[in-house]
Amino acid sequence: MDASRFTVASGVVALLGCLVAFVAPLALGAQPGIRGSVTLSAVVGAVFAGKNFQTIRERGLPSFAAGVMATVLGLWLIVAPLQYDSVGAPLTALVQFGGMCLAAFSAYTALVAVEGFFGAGDTGETDEGDRIGYS
Q1: Which of 8, 17, 30, 109 is the right S-S partner for 62, CB 3.0 to 4.6 Å?
Q2: Mean pLDDT of 100-120
Q3: Structural contact between residues 68 and 110, judged by C-beta atoms closer than 8 angstroms
Q4: How far is CA 52 from CA 5, 21, 44, 96, 119, in A?
Q5: Least confident piece of the model among 30-44, 64-78, 92-106, 119-133
Q6: Is the pTM of this model over 0.70?
Q7: What is the pLDDT of residue 109?
């Protein structure tokens, strides 16, 4: 089964979101606490987003588990800058943007995995009764 272009692009955007969240605290000279928290979260998010992308390329369908875990880490990246007092607006914006890309597009791939499991991605070539077993 071939993945749709949007599903492949979603996997790529999720990985790019991890890259943005990883580079932002390093480039903007964040305090050690926020730098460590965000960069490590971005690395773990990239592991799950990368596994999801690899599964999309190999099987044509994303991995539900990897998509959900990447979504959770993306949501954490949205909230993480708000946990610290000394985070500036540019750092907050970049980390939250990266987290939003990771969370939104990983959630989409998780939904594609659910659709693939339940057969909602069929092309409609067979009648609904044929799929259930009626002739």
Answers
A1: 109
A2: 92
A3: yes
A4: 15, 18, 13, 21, 19
A5: 119-133
A6: yes
A7: 95
Cα–Cα nearest to 90, from 33, 37, 28 = 28
Closest CA to 81 of 70, 96, 69: 96
Q: C-alpha distances in angstroms, 51 versus 11, 101, 103?
A: 10, 16, 15
Tally of residues, the chain: 135
> How far is the C-alpha of 126 from the C-alpha of 6, rounded, in Å?
25
**Tokens 């909602």 identify what position?**
120
Q: With a cut of 70, say whether residue 57 has pLDDT above it.
A: yes
Largest CA distance in the chain: 67
Q: How far apart are CA 84 and CA 121, in angstroms?
A: 43
Angle at 97 between CA 9 and CA 8, to 5 degrees: 10
Rg (CA), the chain: 18
